[in-house]
Amino acid sequence: MNIVGTLEDLISINSVTGDEESILDFIEDFLIKNNFNGEVVRNDGGIIAVPVDSSKKVALVGHVDTVPVSDTQINTTDNDDLVVGRGTVDMKGGVAVILHALINEGKDIVGVFYTAEEGPYDKNGLGILMPILLSYSELEIAIIMEPTNNQIELGCLGALNATLQINGTAAHSARPWVGKNPIYDISKVTEVVLENEILDLDIEGLNYKQVLSITKLSAGIANNVIPGNLTMNINFRYSPEMDSSQARETINNLFSEYGEITFVSTSDGAMPNVKNVHISNFISKTKLDAKPKQAWTDIARFYEAKIASLNFGPGDPLLAHTSDERISKKQLVESYELLIRYLKGI
User: Fold this and answer.
1) Residue ranges of the domains in the chain?
2) Residues 6+ apart with CB under 8 A from 246
3) Per CATH, the architecture of 158-267 is what?
4) Would you please indicate which residues are annotated as catalytic (active-site) residues?
5) What are 141-163's pLDDT values in tens digits?
6) pTM higher than 0.70, yes or no?
7) What DSSP string runs through 100-141?
8) Tens digits of per-residue pLDDT, 13-58?
């Protein structure tokens, strides 16, 4: 049983969000073929695997879905150290690590394989599996196997999306003075965004960056019509010290004078919890440095449930979702060995 071979098998299975049944079947078959002794719970959220004598102290958590495969996806390489293809980084490398840990060092762990992480928050399979996980009163820590280059990343930023509609007055483009072109007000909004684009935050000794961005623009119905309105998406990656109401208040204060704001989605972040005994134990056992997570991950669900949690997994996060997504075989094996070192030391 070779962990690289397991990853290659996982990569060969298409599991774009909404089409995860085949990869869940593979996970069940893998456990059976490798004499997994324990309980396998499967539902619409994915799979939870609990070894028969597990103390259930540690949840190893990974999503099985990927973003769609690019037409320019690279699926072959001459580099013997690399596995290439969609999902190698995000996050089938982490899923392979969990599978091998379940077979070889399962006395303290629960394996979690969930669906639809790459889709909307309310469709995320972990939301369905969480009540089962939280029923395990022994659970002390969740390790989210998101790609971190085998570093420990703590906490995560909150994520907010809002639509700002700037209203104007439609008119024929031959007589623009009859109307009011909302496009010309963009500069006022972009000035506010640039003034607040990046804010460095020191939280429990870790440096997070609160980030404000415009990610979409839409205006106009024809080449010869002054648009009646313009809409833009404002994306706000906010401090884990904020809650959703404070994040919305920040956006209202910055942009309400320029147009109508509609909040589309808000997901609070998670504090790093550096001094938590279970997190500090993971740091000491693996001898890795802790860094901030400059994104949102499902670590926030465990933080909300008051379960210690951290991000740790193989793969360069900068390669996630790219056409040349790839992972080092050496790093994959190293990730497994670091995790086993921690599990043996509990």
Assistant:
1) 3-155+270-344, 158-267
2) 238
3) 2-Layer Sandwich (3.30)
4) 65, 117
5) 999 999 999 999 999 999 999 99
6) yes
7) HHHHHS-TTEEEEEES-TTS-GGG-HHHHHHHHHHT-TT--E
8) 999 999 999 999 999 999 999 999 999 999 999 999 999 999 999 9
